[in-house]
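Ticket closed. Logging final result for Dephospho-CoA kinase.
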Amino acid sequence: MRYVVGLTGGIGSGKSTIANIFAELGVPIVDADVVARQVVEKGSPLLAQIAAHFGEQVLTEQGELNRAALRELVFHNEAEKNWLNELLHPAIRTEMLAQLQAQTAPYVLFVVPLLIENNLCELCDRILVIDVKPETQLHRASQRDNNNIQLIQQIMNAQVSRETRLRYADDVINNDTEQAESADTLRENVLKLHRTYLKLAKEKL
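Final structure:
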């Protein structure tokens, strides 16, 4: 497998912003959230299983997965949540591995919000953590999605702590400053890491 850099961070840390800068440098991205959507696309066997289990209420009029309806059904039901996870997690992992294996660039960025929680660190040669203060996470995530603070706090509580995440990090980008001030600094930091990863990837080959 190519050199794999795992990128992770809590909700609202700015993972997508930083992944996009790597993408602009020509680095291929394998994104767990994108893969999770791909495996349940309209017409997929997994979507058929989900609809058979939960009923047509989890489908939109177009026959696609109604994520909000599904979330509502499993949110307070541990047994249903476990059923869904047992169905989806192996398929998502298989597809992520296939996409990682298919890369031909010197290294690939593997973007996974729950990299540590789902024990996916073993697939990575190096781990990059996007670090922000918890209050920044709350502020950004509530601004971005119009989510209520309680829901974001629940999501944060379900993720590993900031301290734990940093213990796993080989590299850290602090993304706490205001975007306007930090855009150039962020790009500079990413460029430095990009050069490092190219060098490490070359050493691995």
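Strands lie at 3-8, 29-31, 107-111, 126-131, 171-174. No further action required.
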